[in-house]
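The methods section describes the discrete structure representation at length, but only in general terms. An entry of this sort, consisting of the sequence and the corresponding backbone structure tokens, reads as follows.
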Amino acid sequence: MRFKLILFFVSIFFLLFLFIRIESGKKHPTNPIAVDSADCWTGAGLYQIPVDSTGNSIRFGRDLISNTAHYFGPQGTVSHSTNGMNCQNCHLDAGTKPWGNNFGAVASQYPKKRDRSGKIESIEMRVNDCFQRSLNGKPIDSLSKEMRAIVAYLKWLGKEIPKGVKPKGVGIENLTYLNRAADPIQGQQYYLASCAQCHGAHGAGMPAIDGIGFLYPPLWGANSFNDAAGIYRLSKFAGFIKNNMPNPTNYHHPSISNDQAWDIAAFVNSQPRPHKDQSGDWPDLNKKMIDEPFGPYSDSFTEKQHKYGPFNVILHRASQSQHAL
């Protein structure tokens, strides 16, 4: 009886061992969502920052991105130099979200020559560009501890990306151009249905509970980004809306179509906002982006068409001009 019992357990063990060997050799199908998730760059989170002196600076930089208004807003502890928005109002999740205007390629791409300024720009210059445009404020000292912390955070986020490489999911997705002009009137209807609950029917946003900054940022008006901000270009704003709004929508499950995103962007960017002199931008007009809404241009299309489209017509004309050279 005892021998039979031992033989039984030995047989069970052998069959279990054989089953495991067979299963380990199989190629199981991969979950498509998991593959898709790994397909786009996603930034490291707060609790992955090292706990040392270097990490302290990186952590401070992240806090400056997340709570910019606390330091530089109208009631800022460092200065009163911005409109009260936070960097992460445009660079979601402290600049780590895929297709959320993230910072993944900042360290790998800068310094670089930017066509808008015609200059070779450092990371510090790029940060101050945002302070003056998206935050409608003043530049900060490039040698200050705040700037050093922001740069440390940006470099830490992109430390695994080789120089010159821009991974998928970095920045904002370029949506396909419409075959028509973007429609701000239709966009208003989409805005009221999908955006007004957070940003308000009049685009004023929702102030934070402590009165410093905004829980949901203003999309137009005196406290919003000015007309020199990159997101004032329809292609940038439409791509941002498509993959992120209403927050916390992500690129896996967008709730707004491409057409709706273009039209909402057209409506929002038709509303009044602060103006910034851009006469020094785009010294080479041939390199000017086709949806920059202010002239002059190297072609004969109007400011209205450069702002709302249709853009394929402009692209076709530019292609013809290149072939004629």
Notes: The first strand starts at residue 112 and ends at 114. The longest helix spans residues 2-25.
